[in-house]
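in:
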């Protein structure tokens, strides 16, 4: 997710079920096979797009990583462990079964004099169907970067600066960003870092947002204010259709993440 300072209909049945049903055995934790959400109310949720309506959202617990700031972005690795970034600039590991927080030694590469930090983050596979994964981050302060999963050192790539964006990937090793100021979904070429527009959402007045990808389908979570309730919008690139999946989920989603263990895009 991201919070910007100053800045259809329900889907019945199983959403993306065909791809999920075709997924073979793997080395993934079961907890890594759904989407996770964090909210401005400090809740951790799981989100299973295969379930219809609000039954897809399950509250796991309350995050107590810190009280001086709020969650700002998140992603999830193949073990089912969440990485949650706070607006203070701190990064925490979060247990997706209990919502328990563990501090990390991550050092955000931005001046410590700032009081509010923005970051987008997302895992994608290192190569199609690989169990190796890469954690990408994006900041309007330094652009696109990666995080070493062993040392948590940031490697700045010196591309795509000065925008506020969220990131997501998948088991197919593709990387995407979503920029709320334009409502544009783009694919980032991981070799050249050139972007290609995929879809422009019919969204306006977005202040808090997050997005995820499951079975090749995108889910964008948006609210008009930090205290406003989130709407979940679904975009299927195969059919080029956008629809409101859930008009009001009852909380303000500010972070969303899924691992590379979720089902790949369905190819008929």
């Amino acid at each position: 997710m991201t919070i910007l300072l100053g800045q259809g209909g329900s889907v019945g049945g199983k959403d993306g079920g065909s791809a999920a049903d075709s997924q073979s055995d793997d080395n993934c934790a079961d907890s890594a096979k759904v989407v996770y959400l964090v909210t401005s109310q400090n809740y951790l949720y799981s989100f299973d797009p295969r379930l219809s309506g609000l039954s897809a959202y399950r509250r796991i617990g309350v995050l107590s990583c810190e009280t001086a700031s709020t969650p700002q972005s998140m992603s999830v690795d193949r073990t089912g462990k969440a990485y949650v970034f706070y607006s203070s600039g701190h990064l925490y590991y979060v247990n997706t079964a209990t919502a328990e927080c563990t501090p990390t030694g991550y050092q955000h590469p931005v001046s410590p004099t700032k009081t509010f930090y923005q970051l987008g983050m997302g895992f994608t596979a290192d190569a199609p169907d690989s169990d190796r994964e890469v954690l990408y981050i994006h900041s309007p302060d330094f652009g696109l970067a990666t995080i070493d999963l062993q040392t948590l050192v940031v490697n700045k790539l010196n591309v795509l600066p000065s925008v506020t964006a969220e990131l997501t990937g998948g088991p197919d090793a593709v990387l995407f960003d979503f920029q709320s100021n334009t409502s544009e979904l783009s694919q980032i070429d991981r070799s050249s870092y050139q972007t290609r527009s995929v879809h422009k959402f019919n969204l306006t007045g977005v202040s808090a947002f997050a997005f995820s990808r499951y079975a090749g389908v995108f889910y964008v979570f948006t609210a008009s204010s930090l205290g406003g309730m989130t709407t979940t919008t679904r975009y299927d690139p195969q059919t080029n259709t956008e629809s409101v999946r859930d008009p009001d989920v009852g909380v303000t989603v500010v972070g969303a993440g899924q691992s590379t263990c979720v089902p790949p895009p369905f190819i008929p």
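note: The helical segments are 17-22.
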